[in-house]
Design goal:
66% of the residues lie in helices and 4% in strands. With 94 residues, it is mainly α. Helix 1 packs across helix 4 and helix 3 packs across helix 4.
Amino acid sequence: MAEDTGSDELSIEKAIEALAGLLKQSEMTLDEIFDKIDADSDGKISGPELYNGIKDITGNNMSLGQISKIIKILDDNNDNRVDANEFKNALAKY
């Protein structure tokens, strides 16, 4: 069981690193990236917004599994969406 958790954490970490790498290619600030991804301007990024935002900003697709893992790990308050602080705090590490 512990191996599964470690393995899952590793894949989540890789998904976040992939996201950070893709976003760095855009040469936008984290605030600009967040605003662009937050399509409905409600201050939170949903899974579909993250998927479409990455595609729009970088021209690359991430898998739905990667998107789901990223949302899960970045979402500190468990509302299945990522707010600006959650987004910036996580990606600033990369």
